[in-house]
Amino acid sequence: MKITKDLYQSSLALLTDFYQLTMAYAYWKSGKAEQEAVFNLFFRKNPFQGGYTIAAGLDYIIDYCRNFRFDEADLEYLEEMQNSDGSPTFQKEFIEYLRNLDFSCDIEAVEEGTVVFPNIPIVKVKGPLIQCQLLETPLLNIINFQTLIATKASRITEAAKGQSVLEFGLRRAQGIDGALAASRASYIGGCSATSNVMAGKLFDIPVSGTHAHSWIMSFDSELEAFHAYADAFPDKCVFLVDTYDTINGVKNAIEVGKSLREKGKEMVGIRIDSGDLAYYSTIARDMLDEGGFPKAQIVASNDLDEQIITSLKIQDARIDIWGVGTKLVTAYDQPALGAVYKLAAIRKSSGEWEPKVKVSQQSIKINIPGDHDVVRFVKSGKALADMIYLTGNPVEKNNYVIIDPNDPTKRKKININGLEKDNLLKPIFEKGKKVYLRPDIHQIRENAKRNLELFDKAHKRLVNPHIYPVGLEEGLYNLRTDLVLKMKNYDE
Ligand SMILES: Nc1ncnc2c1ncn2[C@@H]1O[C@H](COP(=O)(O)OP(=O)(O)OP(=O)(O)O)[C@@H](O)[C@H]1O
Ligand SMILES: O=P(O)(O)OC[C@H]1O[C@H](OP(=O)(O)OP(=O)(O)O)[C@H](O)[C@@H]1O
Ligand SMILES: O=C(O)c1cccnc1
């Protein structure tokens, strides 16, 4: 079976909404297919009512774009499509056009693991209108999910305050591809390992785990089961102690731990998967300490998320390692990020770029027009603000005012002397050629960790986080306002 990594290396051009193909056809028919355009992918609200988001999914996008082509089976399928009157949906010449389509866009993107915020372009695609359009759905599919899960994982690992979080989600994830992508994104977001062995193999993520209740239940007694497991894995024993009676389970673990020690081996720890985790972990800790196992670790699992972990910490639960499944990989409390992909500018026949805006009653839905970039200002290792500005207007002045795109009364003055400037968008493809050297998954995870350190804890807290300033440079703000007024015919 070909999934994920392999899948993304074969033709996936039909993994799109039908309307992308009908638009592609209509662009082609009206002679606009090759007109140059710029699209931006961005989201409007941080997920989980949080204060930040971790970008993820770029590696999949790179594979997707490198393999962007319609293969013969795809073309045959499209050629056979019919309108309701039996006429072919797509002309033969269009099928031929698709056959020869060669990916030739420029793509810039923020690197995976980067902390991002609403309105920041995460991916920018510049190239023939038809190609930009065809990329909309797959790019959104990839970024929306992985960014969501990386962010959830980051919130959970932040709540664990440096302790290991194991991702146990495979059995409850949204299908096979959802599970694999979730394991990858969870690792980027800070999890230490996954229980998903295929994700381990495909993505080079550490694999880890304990054992299930069925192991205990298959024996006549818990003690017998622990002994048998210790025989099989003398160096990797984490005993699940709550199958029948948690306190008795800890006693049995200690007994087997002692016999392991006689053989020169150490039990790694225990896992508690039910009941009051604060209460049982505290009792278990005391029992393990008194029984001569102060180093034995306590793993906890059972429907955990960042809120429960935080609560358990406040209760002084004695938990060392957190196993988190369902609520992480399904992004339980917010199942979609809601990122969108919008046309920002189009090149006219005169050669000039024309900025484009989508007007909406809801100001949050008005996109940022024009080819734009984003710079992050950093001072002494702390991020101060992000400024979105028109590409081609380099950030060279001393003083800037950035304006909140949704509330023009929210402004921030920035004197950029002495500040570091980080241009978040990095070149990924130039004219269809990959120019980006991909970091490995461990470097991406490190990038996420380093990125988070740039931000004050006020932006990272779970409840009512402090809003990090992201604003439009004044010129861009004015362009957007003028354009909206013009489109609403208020400009006379
Ligand atoms: N001390 C605690 N403080 C807050 N939440 C807790 C505490 N202990 C456990 N929890 C959480 O409360 C929920 C308890 O769920 P539930 O009632 O289904 O558990 P259980 O009945 O003990 O377990 P199971 O159904 O697996 O036998 C879980 O989400 C668990 O993580
Ligand atoms: O709770 P999650 O965060 O999804 O973590 C994964 C869960 O999967 C296992 O449960 P299992 O499938 O054996 O079911 P049960 O323990 O709920 O009965 C494990 O014991 C965890 O409880
Ligand atoms: O290894 C474990 O303990 C594990 C794996 C998957 C789900 N729950 C627990």
Automatic annotation (TrEMBL):
Residues 167-349 form the Nicotinate/nicotinamide phosphoribosyltransferase domain. Keywords: Glycosyltransferase, Ligase, Phosphoprotein, Pyridine nucleotide biosynthesis, Transferase. Gene3D superfamilies: Aldolase class I, nicotinate phosphoribosyltransferase. Its EC number is 6.3.4.21. Residues 14-144 form the Nicotinate phosphoribosyltransferase N-terminal domain. Transmembrane segments: none annotated. It catalyses: 5-phospho-alpha-D-ribose 1-diphosphate + nicotinate + ATP + H2O = nicotinate beta-D-ribonucleotide + ADP + phosphate + diphosphate. Coiled coil: none annotated. The keyword Lipoprotein does not apply. Residues 373-479 form the Nicotinate phosphoribosyltransferase C-terminal domain. CDD domains: NAPRTase_A (cd01570). Transiently phosphorylated on a His residue during the reaction cycle. Phosphorylation strongly increases the affinity for substrates and increases the rate of nicotinate D-ribonucleotide production. Dephosphorylation regenerates the low-affinity form of the enzyme, leading to product release. Belongs to the NAPRTase family. Catalyzes the first step in the biosynthesis of NAD from nicotinic acid, the ATP-dependent synthesis of beta-nicotinate D-ribonucleotide from nicotinate and 5-phospho-D-ribose 1-phosphate. This is Nicotinate phosphoribosyltransferase.
